Amino acid sequence: xxxxxxxxxxxxxxxxxxxxxxxxxxxxxxxxxxxxxxxxxxxxxxxxxxxxxxxxxxxxxxxxxxxxxxxxxxxxxxxxxxxxxxxxxxxxxxxxxxxxxxxxxxxxxxxxxxxxxxxxxxxxxxxxxxxxxxxxxxxxxxxxxxxxxxxxxxxxxxxxxxxxxxxxxxxxxxxxxxxxxxxxxxxxxxxxxxxxxxxxxxxxxxxxxxxxxxxxxxxxxxxxxxxxxxxxxxxxxxxxxxxxxxxxxxxxxxxxxxxxxxxxxxxxxxxxxxxxxx
Length: 278
Known about the structure:
It contains 7 helices and 10 strands. About 45% of the residues lie in helices and about 30% in strands. The protein has a 5-stranded antiparallel sheet. It has helices spanning about 5-15, 20-30, 35-40, 85-90, 95-115, 210-250, 255-275, and strands at about 45-50, 55-60, 65, 70, 80, 120-125, 130-140, 145-160, 165-180, 185-205. It is α+β, with helices and mostly antiparallel strands.
């Protein structure tokens, strides 16, 4: 008998990408023991919550979750509140929190410049060796033509012993969901996701802690910007290019009479060439 976790992942891969969140919730209701493993392994569209203390929106994912509570990057508090002893282990302090605050400010500017709206969040946490983080961006539109872009950029960072450089491992996933429904075309949906990974060694400027922390934030920001630009170009080639080819093969904008006339002319030329003698 196959492993239930592998079977669940296999099933989700075969179902429509635009319905991953609903299908994931259905599987968890059937097999609650798989909840933590599935939530940490399956990429779904990001949910938006509002921080009660700051009044700002933030994004929810498995990296800022504890049970049914989510930590706001703006206030550093969980909503709903969790046990103080648990919060002490999950809430970043000191260097990690300072970098998290600076990274959120930088990504907020990046989001506004590149996406002209949407919501962004960044979370950092300490590891046994180095630290890790995630940068999230969400942009949605409604109306007759719906659209959704969710990008999830996960970092693992290990500083060199000299503190003059650091090794960055970035895994980025983009979830794209586009749809159009009207009387002219009926229903049209394009959904999917794309994941890419990159590892780089980057220099750290300065000797003071504040300078090193700013270097980490700048390095992460540059890597996110470059990776998201790369993924946007790949999505345009893979999804939009392929969809255009399929639609072009299925539907011609030329009149049938013109196509038939061209075929007759082509046959006539071939027959004359075949009958010609040298």
